[in-house]
Amino acid sequence: MSTPKTPVASAGPTAEPADVLAEAFAAAYSVRPVPAAGPVDTTAICNTPAALEELDALWKAVVQETRTRGNDIHLPISLAFAERLCRAYPDADAELVRVATLLHDTGWAHVDESRIISEGFSGDWRKAAIRYEHEQQGCNVARRVLPGLGYSPDFVEHVCEIIDGHDTRPVARSLEDALMRDADRLWRFDRAGIALASSWFGMDPATYTERLATEIVPELITQAAVDMATADLNRSNALLKTGVIR
């Protein structure tokens, strides 16, 4: 299954300033979706939960941030996908991908909760002001909790570079950024993700899974993510009887 190349800022009098990092990443990984260099696991994500213990201290530091917008469902599933993606792309800095994935949506706990659904999941939601706000707040969380857990200042800033723009910037700037973005989308294809996220958008499961196929699969940057999403979508559609319950 092929998908369109992730867009890169184009030249021209009306173009936005060139994103040098994004252009460098696009040049280094010119084939899209990016082929996997390692094994790709397309079994149900519940078969391989995220590694135990290694990030327990970080999870405990952000427990309160997991209690908003279903983060206690979204973040652990996304992290499990991130770990699979890192095995498929061994050149990536797995620690950076894992930590950025765990923290990427913690900022939702520090914005006006009444606006999350009304602004963050309706209309032109990708450009909603609250999405920029949650990215900035997520960086604040990272800068607050990571130094005390022994992470270096440089590492913390690399995490923040990924969190800042993960929803609102249209392009990835590194392989680690790409894997976090794909992990953030992949959780939606699991039955738990469909159950939770379809309600955010006010859609029934059949309508939502159609949206996943037509809008979200083409956004995936890596071939491993496309393969995982396709397998999960097939399983979820069969389980939820979306061909019948419409």
UniProtKB/TrEMBL annotation:
InterPro entries xrefs: HD/PDEase_dom, HD_domain
HD domain boundaries: 79-186
Pfam families xrefs: HD
Signal peptide as annotated in the record: none
Organism superkingdom: Bacteria
This protein's name: HD domain-containing protein
Source organism of this protein record: Arthrobacter cavernae
